[in-house]
Each structure stands twice: as C-alpha cells, then as structure tokens.
C-alpha cells in the first residue's frame, strides 16, 4: 500500500466516526487554541442574480457572512446553522492558513497544502450553508442589503451581479495592504497577504537567479538582480527574510554556485528595532541572528518611493536620502480598511475613522444587527471614567455618598468584566487586590471613599486601553465568541448573563468579548525560532522551532492539510526545496 492510499483510507475511516472527531477536536483546541473545523454542504445556483430561499428558511433569520478567513471560518465552525439561514460570500472559495505564507514563498510548503476549499468545509455540517464565490461591492445599511459581483474574469454567460438581503450581517473580510500612499509601491512591490502573493514572490525569486547567471551581465548587474529588499520589520517581514536566507543558503547556492557570493538580503524598518511588538529579548536575539547570517537590517529608515530599479528611503538619524537598486521588493508594513467597508463607515457616521469601530460585543457602532470581526474592525473599549459617577451610584447602596470596602467588592467583578483595562492597570501596578486602590493621597489605607476618592483610584486605569493586534489569533477568538452569542441569542434574551448595566437597570445580555493571548512565534531561520508565551515566558532557539512545528501542525483546519504540511516539512528535510518556476 502506498503512503498516499494509506492516508486516503485513513481519512475515509476517520470521517465515519464523529465521536473520534470530537475527541480529537478537543485535544487540538487544548494544545493551541486552534483546531479542526467542519461544515455542511450547500447547493448553490450561481446563475441567478438574486438569491431565493424556500418557505422553510423564510422562518429563520438570515445571517450573511462576508469573508472566509480566520474570523469567518471560526464563526461558522460553532454556529448552530439549524437555527439560521446562513449564507457566505467571499471572492475566494478556500480558507488559507496565512501564518505559513512566508514558507510558501520559498517552496518550504506548497501553496495547496495550506488551503482548504470552502465547499469541503461546509459540506461536513449538519445543516445548510450556502456559499457564493463573489465580492461584496457595497453594503446598503438602511435597507439591510448587499450588492455583490462575481469577479473572476471569464467568458461564461449570465449576469455577474446579484444582491442579498440580511437580518444579521457579519463582516469578516480582513484588510488590504497599506501602502501609506508611497509612490511606486503598488506598481513595483510584491505583497504577502494572499496565497497568490506568495506564489508570485516564489516565481520572482527564481527569475532573479536565472537572470543573474545569464552570460553577458556585469558583476554589478548580477548583484542588483540578487538584492532582495523587505520593507517592514514585523513578524511577516522577518519570517520571509529568514525563509529566503535559508532557501538561498541551503538550496540555491548549490544550484547557482557562480553567484553565491553576490546575494544580499536587506530588511528596512522605520522603527528602532525589528519585531518591536515582541519582548525586547526576542527583538535583540533576532537582530543578532540576522547579523550573524549576513542579513542587513536598516532601522530608522522610511521608504519614500519605489521604482522598478531602485528603492528610495530617508534615514531619520541623518536626514539623508539615499537610493538602493534592487531585484525584488516585498512590502510588509501594515494593513488598511477595504474600500467597500470605508463606504459603509460613511453611511453609519464613522467616516472620520480609519477602522470600523465596534463595541465590546463586536456590534458595529451606529448600525443595528451588523457585527465586524478580525482585521477589518477594532473594539472601541468604553472608558471607565465615562461611567465613574454611574458606577459610584450603583455601588453606594445606602446612598451615603461614600463607598465602603464591602460595597466596592460587591461591584468589582462587574467592573473588571465591563472595563478590562482596570484589571490590566492592577497588574501593571502589581496590586494584589482591588482594595489596594482604596488609599488616600498619602498612600494610607482607608475604610471608605467619596466620589472624588473613587475617581482618584481609577483615573489612570483608562491608560491601559489598547487596541488588539491584527492577527489570526484575535480573529479566530472573535469568530468563536460571536458564534456562541448567536447560539444563545434567544435563550438568554430574558435571562442575561453579562455584567451589570451601570447606566440603566439589569444586566447585559452576554459577557463582552475578552481576548486571551496564547503567545506568538517568530521563526528566524536556521531551525531557530523565538516565542513569547503566556506568563511572561520567552523561549528562543532550536527547541522553540520544534514547538512551532507542533503548534502550527495542530492548528491546521483539516486532516488533509495537516498531513500535507507535515509531509512538505519532511520532504524539505530529505530532498530540499523545489526551485522549479511553476
């Protein structure tokens, strides 16, 4: 029996045992916060310009999900699809495991190994989910309507445009690359946001080497063709630089020995350090390793233009402007809101914002029954000082205009849940208990406080409000949270489970979303990685790379992709990376 046929039979056998699937799902979640996702089949009639539902579905509320990324797939994973008419719209008919895109650029992993077709995912659910491969062009917030278009260029007959109505809308479309309006970036740079981007980079790297070994080129021309520039010293840019260095040193210099000494990799970072969102120890370790590997790191440099031959930047320390020739430029500097989301923001009074704002329950502010998840939105956390008077009044049960320690303790759990920045503030000040906040101006403990003393105790808590990072981990947790809210939407309508309403009476229907940071990795090449894990634990070196392998393998969305990714890693160890231009 071949290895392929073995895995095929194993996959069929596994699909026949749902109890085993559930057990494996539980184990996978406990390891890494990720897991296997499963969905149900949907029958789609894409030739119609409007979507029709049968009489049975008319009784259900229609939930339309925009996007099949981390947030959208995580939302669909646990949603009770039998309770809703669920429809999904996305220009891509697959889910991509985006953290492994840098590995795709150099052939460490094949592109198809990290993608799972959406229709494979949804056919496994006990319910009906309809999927439309199209792009949302406009949201009509007033009429609860979407206008979509099939964007794949072909000569197939039929109308490409259609509209959808919704009762609930979940926007999970991610974001697009932010060029900061830098001249020449769109025309001359490569990006690393989609699977197609990684494939383009892979072909361009091979093109650079093939062109460099042609006869008749000067040494300077060969050096220019083999100068690879990465703009952005964040996790994506650093990981791509490390992958490219390994690709060159482990594979390409053996295939192109005549130009092995002419290759140069440069990372340009506007800040003072690369990986500045990580612990300082990791940032320093990464810079030292890159220095040993011969990867040039230019910090304090801002790119002001990019042409097809040169990249021009300004050195902040000296104020000088210099131009550097290149063979390839990869732009990895951040993200911005998609155009149709910006248009939607203008309709609901958020035109002056850069990112779509939601409340702590992921509901879009200014628009009823619309939710936004992942990179396309940010949570606008309410400040505790905005409600300080209402909190004091609710806690002051005897209307004495003073809060005792016991009265403070009665409301502190609701305060910590409604305003998580208070808990962050306690940790930052190394306070063991909330009663440590009840001190006078000289630092002495007191039995009770008035409104001014209460304000003094919490006035600095709002400084701990921070926006969540635009990562797959955040998006996945938000999707899982929102699906639970939808599943209990009617059950908890009359029996709310959330924190106390300090402005008004009763309690909030649900607990607000709270992000739990499970750590982050930074692969640095040479079978070494750095990790920042919960509990202020920092790990660096070869053992951390193997931890990275195990976590990322366990977080794959299906057994198919899990087997493919592990087999790709194994193939690379044995045979090296493939340098074919395909």
From TrEMBL:
<feature type="signal peptide">
    <location>
        <begin position="1"/>
        <end position="38"/>
    </location>
</feature>
<keyword id="KW-0479">Metal-binding</keyword>
<keyword id="KW-0472">Membrane</keyword>
<dbReference type="InterPro" id="IPR002048">
    <property type="entry name" value="EF_hand_dom"/>
</dbReference>
<feature type="domain" description="EF-hand">
    <location>
        <begin position="383"/>
        <end position="418"/>
    </location>
</feature>
<keyword id="KW-0521">NADP</keyword>
<keyword id="KW-0520">NAD</keyword>
<dbReference type="GO" id="GO:0005509">
    <property type="term" value="F:calcium ion binding"/>
</dbReference>
<keyword id="KW-0106">Calcium</keyword>
<dbReference type="InterPro" id="IPR023753">
    <property type="entry name" value="FAD/NAD-binding_dom"/>
</dbReference>
<keyword id="KW-0496">Mitochondrion</keyword>
<dbReference type="Pfam" id="PF07992">
    <property type="entry name" value="Pyr_redox_2"/>
</dbReference>
<dbReference type="InterPro" id="IPR018247">
    <property type="entry name" value="EF_Hand_1_Ca_BS"/>
</dbReference>
<dbReference type="InterPro" id="IPR011992">
    <property type="entry name" value="EF-hand-dom_pair"/>
</dbReference>
<keyword id="KW-0560">Oxidoreductase</keyword>
<keyword id="KW-0999">Mitochondrion inner membrane</keyword>
<keyword id="KW-0576">Peroxisome</keyword>
<keyword id="KW-0285">Flavoprotein</keyword>
<dbReference type="Pfam" id="PF22366">
    <property type="entry name" value="NDH2_C"/>
</dbReference>
<dbReference type="InterPro" id="IPR045024">
    <property type="entry name" value="NDH-2"/>
</dbReference>
<comment type="similarity">
    <text>Belongs to the NADH dehydrogenase family.</text>
</comment>
<dbReference type="InterPro" id="IPR054585">
    <property type="entry name" value="NDH2-like_C"/>
</dbReference>
<dbReference type="GO" id="GO:0005777">
    <property type="term" value="C:peroxisome"/>
</dbReference>
<keyword id="KW-0274">FAD</keyword>
<protein>
    <recommendedName>
        <fullName>NADH:ubiquinone reductase (non-electrogenic)</fullName>
        <ecNumber>1.6.5.9</ecNumber>
    </recommendedName>
</protein>
<dbReference type="GO" id="GO:0005743">
    <property type="term" value="C:mitochondrial inner membrane"/>
</dbReference>
<dbReference type="GO" id="GO:0050136">
    <property type="term" value="F:NADH dehydrogenase (quinone) (non-electrogenic) activity"/>
</dbReference>
<dbReference type="InterPro" id="IPR036188">
    <property type="entry name" value="FAD/NAD-bd_sf"/>
</dbReference>
<keyword id="KW-0809">Transit peptide</keyword>
<keyword id="KW-0732">Signal</keyword>
């Amino acid at each position: 029996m071949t290895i392929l046929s073995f895995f095929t039979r194993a996959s069929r056998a596994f699909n026949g045992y749902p109890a085993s699937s559930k057990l494996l799902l539980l184990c996978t979640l406990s390891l890494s916060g990720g897991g296997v996702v499963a969905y149900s089949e949907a029958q789609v009639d894409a030739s119609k310009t409007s979507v029709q539902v049968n009489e049975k579905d008319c009784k259900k509320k229609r939930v339309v999900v925009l996007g099949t990324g981390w947030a959208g797939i995580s939302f669909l994973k646990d949603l009770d699809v039998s309770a809703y008419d669920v429809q999904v719209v996305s220009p891509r008919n697959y889910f991509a495991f985006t953290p492994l895109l840098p590995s795709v650029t150099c052939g460490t992993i094949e592109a198809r190994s990290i993608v799972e077709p959406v229709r494979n995912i949804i056919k496994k659910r006990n319910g009906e989910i309809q999927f439309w491969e199209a792009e949302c062009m406009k949201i009509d917030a007033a009429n609860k309507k979407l206008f979509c278009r099939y964007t794949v260029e072909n000569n197939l007959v039929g109308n490409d445009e259609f509209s959808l109505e919704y009762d609930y809308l979940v926007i999970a479309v991610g974001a697009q690359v932010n060029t900061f309006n830098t001249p020449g970036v769109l025309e001359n740079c490569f990006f690393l946001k989609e699977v197609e981007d990684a494939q383009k980079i892979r072909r361009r790297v091979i093109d650079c080497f093939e062109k460099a070994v042609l006869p008749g080129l000067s040494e300077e021309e060969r050096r220019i063709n083999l100068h690879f520039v990465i703009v952005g010293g964040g996790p994506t840019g650093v990981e791509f630089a490390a992958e490219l260095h390994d690709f060159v040193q482990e594979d390409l210099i053996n295939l192109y020995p005549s130009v092995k000494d002419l290759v140069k990799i440069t990372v340009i970072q506007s800040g003072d350090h690369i990986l500045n969102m990580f612990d300082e120890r990791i940032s320093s370790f990464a810079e030292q390793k890159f220095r040993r590997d011969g990867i040039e790191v230019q910090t304090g440099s801002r790119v002001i233009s990019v042409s097809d031959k040169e990249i021009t930047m300004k050195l902040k320390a000296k104020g000088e402007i210099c131009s550097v020739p290149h063979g390839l430029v990869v732009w990895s500097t951040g993200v911005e809101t998609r155009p149709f989301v910006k248009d939607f923001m203008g309709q609901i009074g958020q035109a002056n914002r850069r990112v779509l704002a939601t409340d702590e329950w992921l509901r879009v502010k200014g628009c009823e029954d619309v939710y936004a998840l992942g990179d396309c939105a940010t949570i606008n956390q309410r400040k505790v000082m905005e409600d300080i008077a209402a909190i004091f009044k609710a806690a002051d049960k005897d209307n004495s205009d003073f809060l005792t320690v016991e009265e403070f303790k009665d409301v502190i759990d609701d305060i910590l849940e409604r305003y998580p920045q208070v808990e962050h503030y306690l940790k930052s000040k190394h306070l063991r208990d909330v009663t440590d906040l009840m001190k006078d101006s000289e630092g002495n403990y007191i039995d009770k406080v008035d409104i001014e003393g209460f304000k003094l105790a919490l006035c600095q808590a709002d400084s701990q409000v921070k926006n969540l990072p635009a990562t797959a981990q955040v998006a996945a947790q938000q999707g899982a949270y929102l699906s639970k809210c939808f599943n209990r939407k009617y059950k908890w309508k009359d029996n709310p489970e959330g924190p106390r309403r300090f402005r008004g009476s009763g309690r909030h229907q649900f607990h607000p979303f709270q992000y739990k940071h499970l750590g982050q990795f930074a692969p640095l090449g040479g079978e070494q990685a750095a990790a920042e894990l919960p509990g202020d634990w920092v790990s660096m070196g070869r053992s951390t790379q193997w931890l990275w392998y195990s976590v990322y393998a366990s977080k794959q969305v299906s057994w198919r992709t899990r087997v493919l990714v592990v087999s790709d890693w194994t193939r690379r160890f044995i045979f090296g990376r493939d340098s074919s231009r395909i």
